[in-house]
């Protein structure tokens, strides 16, 4: 069905990209470059290179390189023999992004705790945990255990998750509410003893 809609030009991709770009986690510059690549490919430009994109963009070389690098890491584009190609572009715009937004929150928490952006390899490890069936809450609790143990490595977190999977979930640092101090209640009625 989707292929039929694409072939018949029933989908206004440019409008879809502009309206859903933010929801898909794209910056304005990334949306502009994707729009430019899509337009050039629709005009049957066979060789879309960074130098060709520079002709139609007001971005500097450095800015364009950063945008292209981000799009490669997010897997919106790929390099095919020196030519920039879109990677399942329309399909990704049409799919619902609620799950991706939740994962982005998970990734943001990891980056905040690590104090740096995650590498693509680290992103793949976290995605693999989700694919293995680990709940996001469980991953966050394992991260919390690693932070409290002051061992911020994905290998350590992976060990925690695997131990929990084998032996059941056990937290070393359980947050407990302080117990309320109860004062014994006296039912002595001193006024009646007189």
The oligomeric status of these chains comes to: single chain
The CA-CA distance between the termini, in Å, is 93 Å
Average pLDDT: 79
The largest beta-sheet arranges its strands as 1-2
- Could you name the CATH class of the largest domain? Mainly Alpha
**Alpha-carbon Rg, integer:** 26 Å
- CATH architecture assignment name of the largest domain: Orthogonal Bundle
State the helical fraction: 55-70%
Number of helices: 10
Largest sheet: 2 strands, antiparallel
Topology, number of strands: 2
CATH superfamily of the largest domain: Winged helix-like DNA-binding domain superfamily/Winged helix DNA-binding domain
Order of helices and strands: HHHHHEEHHHHH
How many domain units? 2
Helix/sheet category: mainly alpha
Provide the low-confidence segments as ranges.
Answer: 97-102
Describe the structure.
The protein has two domains: 93 residues, Orthogonal Bundle (Arc Repressor Mutant, subunit A), CATH 1.10.10.10; 70 residues, Orthogonal Bundle (Arc Repressor Mutant, subunit A). It has a two-stranded antiparallel ribbon. Helix 7 runs parallel beside helix 9 and helix 9 packs across helix 10. The protein has ten helices and two strands. It has 194 residues and is mainly α. A hairpin with a 2-residue loop joins strand 1 and strand 2. The longest helix has 17 residues.
In short:
The chain has helices spanning 2-7, 13-20, 28-42, 50-56, 61-73, 89-94, 98-114, 120-131, 136-149, 154-167; strands spanning 77-80, 83-86. The chain has a two-stranded antiparallel sheet with strand order 1-2.
């Amino acid at each position: 069905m989707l292929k039929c809609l694409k072939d018949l030009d029933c989908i206004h991709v440019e409008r879809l990209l502009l309206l859903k770009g933010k929801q898909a986690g794209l910056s304005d510059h990334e949306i502009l470059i994707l729009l430019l690549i899509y337009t050039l490919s629709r005009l049957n430009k066979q060789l879309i290179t960074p130098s060709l994109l520079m002709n139609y963009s007001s971005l500097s070389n450095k800015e364009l390189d950063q945008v292209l690098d981000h799009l490669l890491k997010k897997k919106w584009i790929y390099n095919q023999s020196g030519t920039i190609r879109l990677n399942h572009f329309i399909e990704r715009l049409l799919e619902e992004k609620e799950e991706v937004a939740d994962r982005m929150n998970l990734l943001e928490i990891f980056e905040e705790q690590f104090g740096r952006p995650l590498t693509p390899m680290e992103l793949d490890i976290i995605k693999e945990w989700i694919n293995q069936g680990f709940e996001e809450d469980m991953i966050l609790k394992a991260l919390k255990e690693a932070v409290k143990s002051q061992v911020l490595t994905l290998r350590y977190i992976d060990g925690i998750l695997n131990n929990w999977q084998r032996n059941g979930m056990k937290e070393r640092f359980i947050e407990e509410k302080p117990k309320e101090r109860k004062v014994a209640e006296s039912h002595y009625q001193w006024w009646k003893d007189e």
